[in-house]
């Protein structure tokens, strides 16, 4: 199976790197600065699950057509880079290629479906804390590192998902090929939106937030808004997943934060519109009360406005 990975950052670098390390046929589609880092140092992974440094095959967008066809394209960019990423992978989409996005959120699916056809877009997401370090190394923070994926349409997608599962199994990557990817995506979206909105709003970890007088109730109320949107969309979060989400977002002393807080605190662009803004838009469309989401989204827009004004 030939795999193209768009993005050799935190998630693409980690999961694509583990596949390549295990001998899978992996090519990274990168931009020139990342290509120069990979040429100089190889792909460097620093992880509690095992450090690794090795050369990887990589290609620039202008040359990717010559490398096609691929069986699977793993899309691992930030949501604000979606337009350029979609253009970059388009020449690599052969007639049988399927694309597996692992971005957070849901709003990329209609864009991908429209451009490439829904029959070619598998559903996917990942659980990990990872980022690109100052020298281009992929830093895996903590131990969770799993990918969940599944067919959005019966037929060919199922066969391809089975092949993807086999590749992750060979690479020793924790993975789930789920029969209900829409449910899994909504479960993650409602949890992640709560985590991102709250940890960014208060610039603090879960433990610090719930250590305040009203922090625990704030988390519960915010999760109720987000999971209410999931229910309204026809994908209520199953009881066990709800308990896990509430446990993780209200655990005293927990150092947990969202990757969005890391981006915000380092002054970078954030996926606020794709995650918190999109959840609020869906809440309003469904008539779900969402006053806390509105505050969190106002805060993220103010951050983005100040960032732009500062140049
Ligand atoms: N990091 C985390 O812990 C987690 C992240 N996620 C989600 O995963 C997604 C990816 O996040 P993450 O891996 O952290 O992001 P990163 O910013 O670490 O990596 C994204 C990579 O995509 C590359 N890229 C963007 N556009 C293009 C393009 N047109 N052509 C080639 N390469 C491109 C960037 O390249 P360049 O280096 O040139 O800018 C960058 O290296 C997000 O939706 C995020 O929310 C989900 C779970 C956890
Ligand atoms: C919820 C978490 C931490 C797990 O992957 C995440 O997706 C993020 O921080 O973006």
TrEMBL record:
GO molecular function annotations of the record: 2-dehydropantoate 2-reductase activity
Q: Could you tell me the EC number(s) of this protein?
A: 1.1.1.169
> What are the protein's UniProt keywords?
NADP, Oxidoreductase, Pantothenate biosynthesis
An annotated GO cellular component: cytoplasm
Q: In this record, what's one Pfam family? A: ApbA_C
Which reaction does this enzyme catalyse, per its entry? (R)-pantoate + NADP(+) = 2-dehydropantoate + NADPH + H(+)
The residue ranges of the Ketopantoate reductase C-terminal domain are 180-304
State any GO BP term from the record: pantothenate biosynthetic process
Q: Which PANTHER family match?
A: 2-DEHYDROPANTOATE 2-REDUCTASE, PROBABLE 2-DEHYDROPANTOATE 2-REDUCTASE
Main function: Catalyzes the NADPH-dependent reduction of ketopantoate into pantoic acid.
The record's family statement is: Belongs to the ketopantoate reductase family.
Q: What is this protein called?
A: 2-dehydropantoate 2-reductase
Source species, please? Luteibacter rhizovicinus
């Amino acid at each position: 199976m030939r795999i193209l990975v768009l993005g050799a950052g935190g998630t693409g670098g980690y999961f694509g790197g583990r596949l390549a390390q295990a001998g899978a046929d992996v090519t990274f589609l990168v931009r020139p600065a990342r290509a120069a880092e990979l040429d100089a140092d190889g792909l460097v992974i620093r992880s509690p699950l095992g450090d690794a440094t090795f050369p990887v095959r990589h290609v620039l967008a202008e040359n990717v057509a010559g490398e096609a066809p691929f069986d699977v394209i793993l899309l691992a960019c930030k949501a604000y880079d979606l337009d350029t990423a979609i253009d970059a992978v388009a020449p690599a989409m052969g007639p049988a290629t399927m694309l597996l996005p692992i971005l957070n959120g849901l709003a990329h699916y209609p864009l991908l479906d429209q451009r490439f056809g829904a029959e070619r877009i598998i559903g996917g997401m990942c659980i990990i804390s990872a980022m690109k370090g100052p020298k281009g190394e992929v830093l895996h923070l903590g131990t969770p590192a799993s990918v969940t994926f599944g067919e959005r349409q019966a037929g060919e997608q199922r066969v391809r998902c089975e092949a993807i599962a086999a590749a992750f199994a060979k690479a020793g990557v924790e993975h789930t090929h789920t029969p209900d990817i829409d449910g899994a995506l909504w479960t993650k979206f409602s949890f992640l939106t709560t985590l991102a909105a709250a940890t960014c709003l208060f610039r603090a970890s879960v433990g610090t937030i719930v250590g305040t007088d009203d922090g625990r109730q704030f988390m519960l109320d915010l999760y109720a808004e987000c999971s209410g949107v999931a229910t309204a969309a026809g994908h209520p979060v199953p009881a066990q997943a709800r308990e896990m989400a509430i446990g993780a977002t209200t655990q005293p002393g927990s150092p947990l934060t969202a990757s969005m807080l890391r981006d915000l605190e380092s002054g970078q662009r954030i996926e606020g519109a794709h995650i918190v803004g999109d959840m609020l838009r869906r809440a309003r469309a469904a008539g779900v009360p969402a006053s806390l989401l509105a505050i969190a989204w106002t805060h993220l827009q103010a951050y983005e406005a100040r960032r732009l004004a500062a140049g």
